[in-house]
Amino acid sequence: MFLIFGLRSKDTIVGSRLGVCEVCGATAAQTMVRRTTKFSLFFVPLFPVRAARYFVTCTNCGRSRGAAREELAAV
Prior knowledge:
This is Zinc-ribbon domain-containing protein. By secondary structure, the protein is mainly beta.
C-alpha cells in the first residue's frame, strides 16, 4: 500500500499598489501576495500547517519582501 503525502504552498494575489522599491529604488507597481501552506494527502490539501504569510513583490526587479497583514489592509 502506498501513502502519498506532503506539503503544498499556494500563492494568491491580494492586490497591487504603486510604490518605491527598497532594492532597486524605482517607482513601480508592487504585487501583494498571500501564501498558505497546507498538508496534502493523495494530492488533496486537507488542513493548514502554518499561518498565512504575506509578501510584496516589485514588478521592476522581482524582489520579494515580507509584509505585515496590517500593511496590506491599509491599501
